[in-house]
Amino acid sequence: MKTAFIPVAAKLAIQFQVSHTAIASLTAVPLIFSSITGLASVTASKIWGKRPVYLLSMVFLFIGSLWNMRSTTFGTTLGARIFQGIGWGAFDTLILSSIHDTYFGHQRNPRLAAYDILQAATAWGPPLLSGVAMRNAGRFEIHFEILNTFFIVAIPLLAFAAPETAYDR
Q: If you ran DSSP here, which 8-state letter would residue 104 be given?
């Protein structure tokens, strides 16, 4: 999701009538917000646990994705991307600690390797696939429509199937 606009940056610059630097801010500004919320989510997870932080972050991601699906101007797209950036922070910082909380030291390596592979695949796979989808559909919103179908499945799974991993020891 972070790299969603890479394949269509030139098209968006023309559509929104802004510079390529402004289009790059659609990726840069959410990353700044994600770094801030990443720090905040680590603190919040120590107080309330990781599961509520994950759920709240997923809601921010979903709101941002829904908003992006219907955005028609640069300002609304940037606002939606900021919401997504707020949601990214927890997933950038807490997943590794959840793996460390859940598994013993000798069990972690395959899980960490799987996480690293999935992280790379989800960072660089969607621009390749969404570029084709956006070209064939003729609009950039199709990427977020596809993402929202995954969110519709992922949110209930996170709410009902993901356990709390932070415990007092």
A: -
